[in-house]
C-alpha cells in the first residue's frame, strides 16, 4: 500500500515541466492540494476558481485538474490510494481552512506520512492506512464546519458534465458536437457555458486534455508518433503532427528533444 501514498511539495512540482500540472489531466488516485502561501487559479474539469493561503482542494480519482503554481506559491500535494474504505469524498471541493488548530493537524498528518514513507519501518502499510483515515476524518470535519457544501453556480453543472464526458472519451476522436449531442444541447450553448465557467470554449478544453496526454506519451514513453496518433484518436500521424504543432508550438519530434523546463507550450 505504501506506493499508493505520495507527498510532493509544490516547489518540486514547479521545478518540473509546466505542462504536467498546468494543463488538464487526471490521476487514478485521489489528490489533495494544500496551499499554505501564495495565490493562483485552478481548474476542476471545466470550472476555474481561485485559491489563496490555507486552501484545501480535493480531486477524486479520474477527475480533470489543472493548477497554476507561481514562484510565490507554497504547499504540498498528497496522493492517496483509491480505497473506498477510506471514506473519501466522491466529488471535488475546495475550502479555505481558517482554524489554526485544523491547519496544524493537517500539517502534522502530512509530516507523519512523509516519515513513514522514508523510514521503511515494520507495519508501514498499517500506519499509512491509519493516517489515510485521519486525513479522511479531517476532510469530513472541515466540510461539516462549512455546512458540508461548496456553493456551485448552477450554470456550471453542464460544464462539469461536459468535462466528465471529455475525461472518459477524449481518446475517441469525437468532436465537441458529439459531446454536445450526448448532453442534449447545441455546441454553441455548450461553448457559451464553458466560457462562463472557465474562460475557454468547449473545444479548447477538449484540445487541452488531448494535448496533455500527447505530451506525456512523447516524454515518458518511446512510442512512435504514429502510435500516439492512433492512441489519441487521430486519423493519421500527419494530422496528429499538424494538430500538436498548432497547439504546442513544436512538432512532436521537436518537443520530445526539449529539456523539461523548456517544455513550455506555445499554443497557436
Fold and architecture overview:
There is one protein chain. This protein is of the alpha+beta class. The termini are far apart. The protein has eleven helices and eight strands. A hairpin with a 2-residue loop joins strand 3 and strand 4 (47-51). Helices cover 48% and strands 15% of the residues. The strands form two sheets. It has a five-stranded antiparallel β-sheet. The mean pLDDT is 92.
Write a brief caption for the model.
Helices cover 48% and strands 15% of the residues.
Label this structure with key terms.
268 residues, alpha+beta, Jelly Rolls, Arc Repressor Mutant, subunit A, 2 domains, five-stranded antiparallel beta sheet, three-stranded antiparallel beta sheet, 11 helices, 8 strands, globular
Amino acid at each position: 500500500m505504501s506506493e499508493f501514498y505520495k507527498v510532493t511539495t509544490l516547489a518540486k512540482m514547479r521545478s518540473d515541466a509546466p505542462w504536467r500540472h498546468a494543463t488538464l489531466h487526471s490521476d487514478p488516485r485521489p489528490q489533495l492540494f494544500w496551499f499554505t502561501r501564495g495565490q493562483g487559479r485552478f481548474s476542476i474539469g471545466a470550472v476555474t476558481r481561485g485559491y489563496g493561503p490555507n486552501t484545501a482542494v480535493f480531486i477524486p480519482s479520474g477527475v480533470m485538474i489543472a493548477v497554476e503554481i507561481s514562484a510565490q506559491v507554497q504547499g504540498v500535494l498528497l496522493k492517496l490510494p483509491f480505497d473506498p474504505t477510506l471514506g473519501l469524498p466522491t466529488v471535488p471541493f475546495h475550502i479555505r481552512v481558517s482554524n489554526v488548530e485544523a491547519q496544524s493537524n493537517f500539517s502534522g498528518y502530512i509530516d507523519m506520512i512523509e516519515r513513514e514513507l522514508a523510514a521503511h519501518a515494520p507495519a508501514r502499510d498499517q500506519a499509512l492506512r491509519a493516517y489515510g483515515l485521519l486525513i479522511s476524518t479531517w476532510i469530513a470535519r472541515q466540510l461539516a464546519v462549512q455546512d458540508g457544501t461548496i456553493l456551485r453556480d448552477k450554470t456550471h453543472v453542464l460544464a462539469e458534465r461536459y468535462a466528465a464526458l471529455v475525461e472518459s472519451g477524449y481518446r475517441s476522436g469525437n468532436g465537441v458536437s458529439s459531446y454536445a449531442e450526448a448532453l442534449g444541447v447545441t455546441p454553441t450553448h455548450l461553448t457559451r457555458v464553458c466560457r462562463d465557467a472557465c474562460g475557454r470554449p468547449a473545444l479548447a478544453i477538449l484540445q487541452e486534455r488531448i494535448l496533455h496526454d500527447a505530451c506525456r506519451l512523447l516524454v515518458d514513453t518511446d512510442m512512435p508518433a504514429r502510435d500516439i496518433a492512433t492512441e489519441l484518436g487521430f486519423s493519421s500521424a500527419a494530422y496528429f503532427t499538424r494538430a500538436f504543432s498548432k497547439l504546442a508550438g513544436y512538432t512532436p519530434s521537436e518537443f520530445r528533444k526539449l529539456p523539461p523546463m523548456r517544455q513550455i507550450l506555445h499554443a497557436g
